[in-house]
Amino acid sequence: MGEKAIAVMNATEFFAWQESQDDLYELVDGLPLKMMTGARNRHDQIVVNIIGETRAILRGRTCRPTTQDSGVKISETQIRRPDVAIDCGPLVDESYLVNDPRVVFEVLSSSTRIFDQTKKLEEYKSVASLTHIVLIDPDAPELIVFARAAGQPWVSRTIEGLEAEVEFSSLGFSLPMAEIYRDLSFRARPALVDRE
Fold first, then answer.
1. Chain centroid offset of residue 106 CA
2. Is pTM beyond 0.85 here?
3. What's the pLDDT at 44?
């Protein structure tokens, strides 16, 4: 016996439906898509580090970090759940959405890396309030920041090394790479060229 087909939903219908589910879903083209679970400890540690550090930096301001439990509305039929977002709007107790997303962080994984760097990136770029999109490599101290000033196009920059900092100029703070990758060690990458 086949499963009952799920009708295309808008954001309101999706969150009402999500309340009765045990798993976490995104809304993709009006249909619920179950999120992958079981991220590696490295991935989880980076998420915890970002939330902890941004919470401390933003304490006393109107902005605050959120977890992937809070969705970012791309359109009426598209809801994404970044690993971390910075919300600068008022806290709406009963909402499931980030009210005023300014920054999203995605920790890349081998199974979603290409999708996150292409289609999902373009979706995030369409969100008018976002000023920064950060794609984080969990296996090396390296990330890509996409940033834009008001009325300007997106510009990307790769940041490498634990001594560097990620600047969020529109929000008036920076995040040290050493804090993003706190408590993690890295294996040396193989050399592409024989140096002898």
1. 4
2. yes
3. 94
